[in-house]
Specification:
Blueprint lengths: L11 H13 L4 H15 L13 H14 L11 H9 L1
């Protein structure tokens, strides 16, 4: 099978960490990249889930509070000045 050289750019620290982790698994970067690309071809997709960070509990609570305000379950907070708003936020 003919081979081709490929060049990719990555963060230096990421490469160092990946090289160490792969070495612990008995692999090198070339083998790992070939494994990854073979799975892309076989599965027709990235072979793992790519997701954004899931909101933490505080963010989820804030989102629920806004939904409750929109749906009239709790009264919306109102402020007469930005100073009043920031005092409430700092509390």
């Amino acid at each position: 099978m003919a081979t081709v050289n490929m060049s990719i750019r990555m963060d230096t620290e990421l490469k160092k960490q990946a090289d160490a982790m792969l070495a612990d698994m008995g692999l090198n970067m070339t083998t790992a990249m070939n494994m990854f690309l073979r799975q892309v071809v076989r599965q027709g997709k990235i072979p793992f889930e790519i997701a954004t960070d899931i909101p933490n509990a505080e963010t989820l609570a804030a989102m629920k509070e806004v939904d409750d305000m929109i749906n009239g379950k709790i009264p919306a907070k109102k402020y007469t000045s930005t100073d009043e708003l920031f005092k409430d936020l700092e509390a």
